[in-house]
Amino acid sequence: MKKTPLAYKLRPASLKEVAGQSHLIGEGKPLRRIVESSLQSGNLPCMLFYGPSGVGKTTIANIIAAQTNMTLCKLNGTSCSTADIKEVIARAGSAGGLMPENGILLYLDEIQYLSKKQQQTLLEFIENGDITLIAATTENPYFYVYGAILSRCTVFEFKSLTADEIVPTIQRAFALVGRDVRIAPPDSVIDIIAQGCGGDVRKAINAAELCAMIAEGGAVTEEIARQLVQKSGMRYDRSGDEHYDTLSAFHKSMRGSDENAALHYLARLIEADDMAGICRRLLCVAAEDVGLAYPNAIAIVKACVDSALQLGFPEARLPLAQAAILLATSPKSNSVLAVDAAIADVRAGRGVGFPRQLQNVHCDGADNAKPGQGYKYPHDYPGNYVAAQYLPDSLAGRVYYAFGENKHEQAALAFRRHQRGEISDKNPTE
To answer: What is the pLDDT of residue 240?
Structure first.
């Protein structure tokens, strides 16, 4: 006998029962207003639901189909063929079929797995209204969905649920599976599941069902809950948004001098075994964000990275954490980005050629009216400095770099001014 999944039994029948997504389906919010309006007008637009798995995309599509009395057809991009798509089209009446009274609502899950040609097959029938499309994807639709489809859909972004939003569903799950043997887990168990499911309602329901399955005498312990949800809170895909969001949050936390947040995102990356991503971001922050405010930071971070690569996990977590904390608590300067302005000039074709005194001595030929390089060797002058033009003539006087407001760069600025005679030995800060 086929068993009905618990998640299916708990699936909400109305938008009011859906957990989370209040920014879309709360009172007066856009998706809810669109659905309410379509009930009166009979005109439902094509939509694209974008967000992580287990947050209500399919559930809301089912509710919309039920409330609008449309015939719901479901396809999954991972398994459907062009023939499956054409079968739906035939049902729409465009190939001799009989058009359902209230039209067809096609729910196309994981649309990113369809080829461009398969997506194009739908275009004509979306355009003429024979089919109303609700597509869903866990990937950024602007990267993975064919542009012509995207332009005909309103995109709604679904968010991971908070632990508080998931708690009522977990309580309902335990109540439903505990009909034969009463299961009343303590609040601490429900909190562990809610916190550990990573904002995925489906994972939370499955964890509750498993807890109930192995509970002894109806008692679910915290230890059982922890064992069943360990690592289930991780949302990570090496090529998806979660990957880049985690790396971005790690980088920005160090740049923003929040060592605690940096350690949190580092922990996520460690659990995902993303050694390469961690090392690259640490070195980048050392060069870009700490930079000349603490020039030794990059050498220390490089040593930590080398140690981590040699140690491997789990020991690698220690030098990686050392580097992350060092960078987060270090003074910051991005003055090194001055190189970007120089690169922009070169790409724009500015600054062609060289001052004569900087060229190699071989440049003097028999036809040179002014032989002699004219180069002044700085070490032959007091303080190892002599005024000279080093930039090309067309860029003479151009300034790319500005000394940062930190002790290292201010010390370098003071030395520069002293070297050029702008301040005296007696009062180096004048």
So the answer is: 58
Give the β-pairing of 47-50 and 154-157: parallel
308 neighbors 279 (Cβ within 8 angstroms): yes
pLDDT digits (tens, 9 = 90+) for 215-255: 766 678 888 888 887 655 555 555 556 778 889 999 999 99
Whether the Cβ atoms of residue 124 and residue 115 lie closer than 8 Å to each other: no
What is the rounded distance in angstroms from the CA atom of residue 368 to the CA atom of residue 303? 52
With beta carbons less than 8 A apart as the criterion, state whether 268 and 310 touch: no
- Between CA 400 and CA 339 the distance in angstroms is 7
Does residue 177 contact residue 209 with C-beta atoms inside 8 Å? yes
Cα–Cα distance measured from residue 231 to residue 245, given in angstroms and rounded to the nearest whole number? 18
The model carries a pTM of: 0.58
- Closest to 322 in 3D by CA, of 306, 293, 296, 300: 300
Residues 107-122, mean pLDDT to the nearest whole number = 86
What does the DSSP 8-state code read for residue 104?
A: E
- Measured distance CA(234)–CA(320) in Å, rounded: 20
Return the closest-CA partner of residue 46 out of 129, 120, 116. Answer: 129
Tokens of 323: 């580097």
| pLDDT value of position 95 | 43
Distances (CA, A) of 429 to 195, 387, 416: 55, 22, 12
Q: 105-114, 210-219, 288-297: which range is least confident on average? A: 210-219
Is 96 a residue whose pLDDT tops 80?
no
Let me know the angle formed at the C-alpha of 188 by 183 and 191, rounded to the nearest 5 degrees. 100
Q: Which residue in 20, 13, 346 sits closest to 165, CA to CA?
A: 20
Within a 10 A sphere around the Cβ of 356, how many other Cβ atoms? 16
Q: How far apart are CA 38 and CA 63, in angstroms?
A: 13
Rounded distance between C-alpha atoms, residue 314 and residue 270, angstroms: 9
As given in the structure block, the two tokens for residue 216 are: 């002894």
Longest dimension (CA), the chain: 105
Q: Kind and range of the H or E element at 108? A: strand 104-109
